[in-house]
Amino acid sequence: MATVNLEIVTPNKKVYSENIGMAIVRSTGGELGILPKHAPLVTGILPHAMRVEKEDSSEELIAVCGGFMEVKPDKITVLASAAELPINIDVNRAKKAYDRAKERLDILQKSQEEHKNIDFVRAQAALERAKARLKATKNPID
Ligand code: ATP
Question: What is the residue range of 56's domain?
């Protein structure tokens, strides 16, 4: 099987470095499937559960928060503000973050004028990060 090296790096550490068969990534321009020998590109990425097809054809999900991705024919580099393998995700923490963000967004929707101190963009981004973590751990999201 042809492979491409995938490296996922955050400001704190290297989260992932493997030779893979394919990656499916939610970029700012839409969903991208990256195979070995893909044409070079640089794009922004949104918080999501990145799907990786490994060399042995098994699939892996990795929670990736926003950042950038550089693709070269033999290497994919993801630079993310945070990223976690499912085994390192604290599901309870992600559920709490999800509920907190949902509650903030619900309050805002009901009465935006009265809640000027709630930052919509921040709450929405927190919700997306929590969803990425819950999806990567295959937890249902309502
Ligand atoms: P929280 O509100 O729970 O802190 P967050 O989305 O604001 O969530 P981030 O700013 O994306 O958190 O991440 C800060 C650090 O905490 C990163 O190192 C990230 O990997 C880690 N982290 C965040 N949530 C989780 C989680 N549910 N399980 C494991 N690590 C997490």
Answer: 4-84
Take atom 4 of ligand 1 and give the residue whose Cα is closest: 97
Mean pLDDT of all residues in 45-59:
96
Residues 9 and 72 in one domain: yes
Residue 87 DSSP class: G
Report yes or no on 108 lying in a domain: yes
Pocket residue to mutate for ligand 1, from 89, 92, 119, 127, most atoms within 8 A of Cβ: 89
Three-class SS of 95-120: HHHHHHHHHHHHHHHHCCHHHCCCCH
- The pLDDT tens digits for 63-91 are 999 999 999 999 999 999 999 999 999 99
Q: Is residue 142 part of a domain?
A: no
What are the backbone dihedrals phi and psi of residue 26, each rounded to the nearest 5 degrees, phi first?
A: -90, 100
Claim to verify: residue 130 and residue 116 sit in the same structural domain: yes
